[in-house]
Amino acid sequence: MKLNKLFLLALSSLLLLSGCNTAEPTSVEVAAPPASLVLYGDVTADNPQLITLDFPAKVTAVHVKNGDILQKDDILFTLDFSDYLLQMSSKEKELEEAQIQLKNLEQSLNPQLAQYDATSENLALKKKYLQQGSDPEIIPLESELELLEKEATTAKSLYETNQELFTNGLLAQQELEASEQAYKAILQKIEATSSAIKQIKDARTLEVNTLSNELKSLKSQISNTDQEKSTSLEKLRVQIALLEETISNMKSKLDKPYLMENTIIAPVNDMVVYDIAVMNGSDLSSTNGILGKLLSQDSLYILADIPEESLSLVKEGQPVSISLAGHTDSQPVLAGTISQIAGCATLKDGDTVVEAHIQVTEGSKHLKAGLSADIIVSY
Fold it and tell me: pTM score, two decimals?
């Protein structure tokens, strides 16, 4: 019996000890994953460069294919535009011959004919001054007159206000007289400027009449042969001006950053060629002068659509994660930033969306124009 009591006592002690060592269950807080939004977009190029020529040429060789990445001075196409260069050379020879004819004709002219031409040009200029109001002596005076008239309007208003204040005993006579003198001084300037303009116009009219009479006198002293030479001289000058303009335009068409001698080259590093529109033997007249397009790898960005109901969750400067189509281990998840959100919405496939520009900050070398992308925005 005593043994049983001892056993029960020991058992009770063990139970008490085990009860004291039992710990209360603790709760573990697990951080909730951040909320995220998935947007869909495409890799887009900013300001692609159209490779085009606006003169006749034929493609003799194509050295690239769509999607090739090129470095500066890499050759895309070889061209033959020898006919165009020959045409330009012909125009240059024609110009040279016309200039020689002009020089010879000028040397054979009657001195009075040269005076006649100079007087005629001077008369035409002075008539233009009067008819079009383009006289360089009058223009600044007319501008000054316009300013003076505005000042006069302000000064008159001030003077009339001061008169009323003076009548009501609210202004000293000295201040009234000062505003009156200021107004009258401006009126005097207006009168002087108007008079100067009239004097110049009168002088121009007199000058035109004098030149007209002088021209008639010179014409009576010039023979018919001299007059024919004068006409030929004027025609040659017009012809030379047209030839110079034509040659200048032809040369400007050859001044393109991607044209070097008879080849089309990449103007800078890391250019991608696409939409090639020609093949060996192509005549550029059949493609409207278009050979293809170039885009810079540095200009690639992602254009994504934000659904209107999610617009409040997205803001400029927000970091994003980007997965490109066909994502593999060799194409890791890219990092980027929402650089711009459009100021207006558009309708696409029946949904209202707002476009967002996403600049890739890490992994931009994996971008290829036209690839689709999933953009994860955490908020």
Answer: 0.56
